[in-house]
Structure formats: C-alpha cells, structure tokens
Amino acid sequence: MSLRLAEFLRTHRSAILEAWEEEVRQLPAARSLSQGALRNHLPMLLDCIAGMISKPRQESISAGLGTVPDVHALERLGEGFDLRQVVREYRLLRRCVLRLWAAQGSTDSLEAAAVFHGAGDGAVGA
Q1: Residue 8: CA atoms inside 13 Å, Cβ hemisphere, count?
Q2: CB–CB of 69/122 below 8 Å?
Q3: Is the pTM above the cut of 0.85?
Q4: pLDDT tens for residues 28-72?
C-alpha cells in the first residue's frame, strides 16, 4: 500500500511523533521535559505541512506555517535549548517522517517532496 505524503502525515502523526521523541530524547535539554512539553507544537506543524502539500502554491511557506515555528523555538529557548538543539529537533523530525514514509511505500510527486523540505527549511529559518 502506498501513501501520498500529506495523507501519511495526517494518518501516521502518532507514529511519527513517537519515533521523533525517541531520537530527540538524546538531546540533554529534552531529557527532562514531559511528553506534552516536548511535543508541544509539533502536531500542529505536521498538520500545517500536510495542508501545504495538499494545496501547493496556495501561500508562501512562512504563511503556511504561521507562527508555529516561532512559538516552538521561543519556548525551546526558554526551556534551556540552544539554537543548535532546536535545529536538530527539526532535522530529526524530517528524518523520522522520511524514514517512516518510505517504509510505508511512499509515492508522491517531486513537488510534494519539495514543499515538505521547504516547510522544514522554513521552520528552521524561523
């Protein structure tokens, strides 16, 4: 069974977050956070990205992501993360999504992949 990326992000959000949490807990600043505090805005971020992939070119990357990356980064900095750790969080999220999506038999357009990567870059840039 193959899945398009937007559908995958919506239907496998829990598995994505579990895989990401396992990896991100290796960051010293993440070890002491509760699951809720650790995951805080990531479900919304995945939903924003899925929406952007479903309706490409409807709006700019920053408009599609809204304030989610900004608020996430500010909260992380307040929790003792440094900028490198926040960037690593996003890198780990991207890696987990791609690994799990590939395991499901990914099929989608290059445009969907470009939107996904652009959103990840936009989140890091914010």
Answers
A1: 23
A2: yes
A3: no
A4: 889 999 999 999 999 999 999 898 888 766 667 788 888 998 898
